[in-house]
Amino acid sequence: MSALLKVDNLKIYYGSIEALKGVSLEVKEKEIVTVLGANGAGKSTLLRAISGLLPIKKGKILFENNKLNDTVPFKIVVAGISHVPEGRKVFATLTVEENLNLGAYTRRKDKQSIENSKERVYELFPILKARYRQLSGTLSGGEQQMLAIGRALMSTPKILLLDEPSLGLAPLLVKQIFRIIREINSQGIAILLVEQNARKALSIADRGYVLETGHITINGPAAELRMNQKVQEAYLGGAALKKNK
Fold first, then answer.
1. Bridge partners, 6 (sequence order)
2. What is the per-residue pLDDT across 175-212, written as a single tens digit (0 to 9) for each?
3. Which is higher by pLDDT, 237 or 149?
4. For 48-78, how does the pLDDT look when each residue is reduced to its tens digit (9 = 90+)?
5. Crossing angle for the helix pair 111-124 and 171-186, nearest 10 degrees?
6. pLDDT of 168
7. How many whole angstroms from its chain centre is CA 245?
């Protein structure tokens, strides 16, 4: 199966600082692929580059074999890539429903289709339907994360970029968010997941990459990464390693 999304030898700079140093990865249709790494490794930079939010110094990004370099973010969303940023970034002074409507901006003329998409989001996140008139800034952290994911789904993406969806959430909510990510994937949407909770990420991913100081150092099937000694020691607290001794 050919790659839906392909990143090839990507180099990104912040001024004179090289944040990504020749990163290559791919996501196939209907896959969940996770990117693991410590703070500052370049994970969010990678997602922002794919979304067209950062200029590309070298390398290329292909989506359905179409080159995205220099493509404006709006057209990247239209192409089928939707990004849920770290920290949720909901519009606090707008209602839940208004946030969702903004997520459908790229197809705003198709009102019936937008309503259908909204109902699908409400099926995934019943709490959002119950709070559809509530200002987003008054939602809990978990509810805001659900809203951020729901808003991204409103553009009917082919691939969803998720940046630290479990950050700052209670364990019960983390479990719920990962269950929903699986559900979204089961509907045919590919997922590129940046996540510090390596154990949870590898439990739902098909494949994974480890990003360290701008380089991909390890990659492979999620099951292999779970058994990799370096991954266990750095990201799984050595627990899996001890368990398998």
1. 26, 62
2. 999 999 999 999 999 999 999 899 999 999 999 999 99
3. 149
4. 999 999 999 999 999 999 999 999 999 999 9
5. 140
6. 86
7. 34
Place of tokens 């997922």: 191
Place of tokens 């198709």: 110
Q: Which amino acid is at 170?
A: A
Q: List the alpha helices (DSSP H) in the chain.
A: 43-50, 73-79, 96-103, 111-124, 126-130, 141-153, 171-186, 198-204, 222-227, 229-235, 239-243
Please enumerate, as own/partner, the contacts of 216-223 that have beta carbons within 8 Å and a separation of 24 or more. 216/23, 216/24, 216/25, 219/25, 222/34
- Three-class secondary structure of residue 41 per DSSP: coil
- Residue 29 per-residue DSSP state: T
Assign 174 to helix, strand or coil.
helix
CB atoms within 10 A of CB 171: 10
